[in-house]
Amino acid sequence: MSTEHNDLLKFLDAEQNDQVNFPVILKRSTSASRNDFLRRNTPLNRSQYKRDARVVCKSGRLLVYFKKIPQKSAQYAKDLWNTLINMQWRWLLLTVAAVNVVAYISCALLFYFDSWFSGDFDNEEGKLSCMVGISNMRHFFMLGIETITTIGYGYVRPSENCELYFVVLAFSTITTIFIDGAFISVVYAKLNKPKERNVHGHMFTKKAIVSLRDGHLCLIVRVNDKEGRHGINTNVCMYLIKDRMMLEGELIPNYMVELAIKPFGMLFWPVDVIHEIGPESPLWDISAKELMTTRLEIVVVVSGSSMKTGQSTRSQISYLNKEIMWGYQFSPCLEFNAPKREYLISKKLFQQTVPQEVPLCSGRVLRELQQQIKPDRQSLNLNQLHSKS
């Protein structure tokens, strides 16, 4: 077992007996740091992800579904526009094909009725036929397809002797306009709606970290937008999902609260999205031990428009408590290539983390200790000045 593991176990045992003094800092040796680094940076198995209860999976898909909805089919039919837009592509294409087949059959039945109404089935000698080249029902169906798609008639065609020919043509024209206009609008809206995905798994780091920045505990996630999908009006949000006990004793499961993040600039290269664990942060009282034992989930959402097409895009990912590494920092992954006069981004270093000496106490305890130490340092500096004078 590595040195930092022993220190962590001693810290947890001492805290249970109220004998721990904060802040506690892990002292890492070179070999122990390397072994722990390799262990913590090993990706989790897919089967392990499946067993975890989470809101957003690593691919960016939202794992929230509704069940036992009263009159579910009727509600989908009332909001047909959103139903078609949110439908998967295979079901949308199947719906388009089914609607067109129904339109072909309806037009074929109207031609059949027109032929019957015009007396083609009376077998009277010398009477001009309404439909030319019709011998079976398949010809009526082919006539309906030719009329709806306006590809032109062949040897099977209606003649001027049909009584209801203009009614059938009016119906087919209105049906064609409705089908083409409706489904073209649905496809266009579906193509332009924001994409909810993690771009090929390279948008976010696989794990989040808790490290020190300017003396403050910070929750950090690294974000990369190499394809410029979020280059316009970029917006990054971070949310905490955790059970919360209200003052009245009510337990609210999966309570969601937004975490404030620092300005990060533009996504020209990988940037660190930083949430400072301050007095207003929901993580203010969470220590390393509580992070290991508390069920929580951090959701990061990046939205914006593509710099190439202007299409709205949204990527999202979540981190469970066991995917948050306490006491680590991200390795620099950006370097300048002087011969080519350009910046290079290392894909390998994008996910890499290195250990950092970070107190295991909560942000509140760390702030109290810093406030206690600061007056002592000031008085020490004054005494040194008086002694020198």
Automatic annotation (TrEMBL):
Organism ancestry: Eukaryota, Metazoa, Ecdysozoa, Arthropoda, Hexapoda
Any single GO CC term annotated in Swiss-Prot or TrEMBL for this entry: plasma membrane
Membrane topology: Multi-pass membrane protein
Listed transmembrane segments: 91-113, 164-188
Top-level taxonomic group: Eukaryota
Keyword terms: Ion channel, Ion transport, Membrane, Potassium, Potassium transport, Transmembrane, Transmembrane helix, Transport, Voltage-gated channel
Coiled coil: none
One of the Pfam families matching this protein, by short name: IRK
Inward rectifier potassium channel C-terminal domain location: 203-369
GO molecular function, one term: inward rectifier potassium channel activity
Annotated localization: Membrane
Family recorded in the similarity comment: Belongs to the inward rectifier-type potassium channel (TC 1.A.2.1) family.
Name this protein carries in UniProt: Inward rectifier potassium channel C-terminal domain-containing protein
Chief location bin: membrane
Residues of the Potassium channel inwardly rectifying transmembrane domain: 56-194
